[in-house]
Amino acid sequence: MRGFSMQSVFSALIAYVVSHFRSHESLRLENMALRHHLAVYQQTVKRPKLRPADRLFWSWLSHLWSDWKEVLAFVQPRTVIAWQKRRFRDYWRQLSQSSKPGRPALSKEVRDLIRDMWRSNPIWGAPRIVGELRKLGIHVAKSTAEKYRPRVRKPSSPT
Q1: Mind spelling out the 3-state secondary structure of 35-90?
Q2: Which of 16, 83, 119, 138 is geometrically suited to a Cys-Cys bond with 133, CB 3.0 to 4.6 A?
Q3: Sorting pLDDT into bands at 50, 70 and 90, what band is 60?
């Protein structure tokens, strides 16, 4: 059924192109006939079923034509605006969720290098470790350097 909806949108676009070659009188009569079809349809069908292609068509048309609200008969204009907002939100949600969240993991070599630097230079602080790593072209935060600092266990004191 999805193809049927795309076919209706495609046929509407073809009719638009063909309308440029027709007389104004012919277009007015067709417009009157289509408005009559629409009035009969509205009396017989309570709620038409719209497909994603239909929603996309009206969202697209609302950007191109200023009088789109006046001819919209089967849904409210605010519904079309809600479709646009939903498409925008869904697009950016999909884009932002395509990769893993959070910071990228440090490689094992960099973690081992940080631990070796701490062990070799016990009086250096995290800012110095970060500076030395930056000289090597490795950019890490101060908190990352502190995270991989080896913990020295103190012997328990007698009480």
Answers
A1: HHHHHHHHHHCCCCCCCHHHHHHHHHHHHHCCCHHHHCCCCCHHHHHHHHHHHHHH
A2: 138
A3: confident
Q: For residue 80, which amino acid is it?
A: V
- Cβ(133)–Cβ(114) under 8 Å? yes
Please report which helix (H) or strand (E) contains residue 28, including its range.
helix 24-44
Q: Which residue has the tokens 């890490």?
A: 140
User: pLDDT above 90 covers what percent of the chain?
Assistant: 25
Structure tokens at 107: 């490689």
pLDDT score for 55: 83
Q: Which residues contact 114 (CB under 8 A, 6 or more apart)?
A: 129, 133, 140, 144, 145, 148, 149
Percent composition of the chain: helix, strand, coil (DSSP 3-state, to 5):
65, 0, 35
Enumerate the domain spans of the chain. Answer: 2-96, 108-147
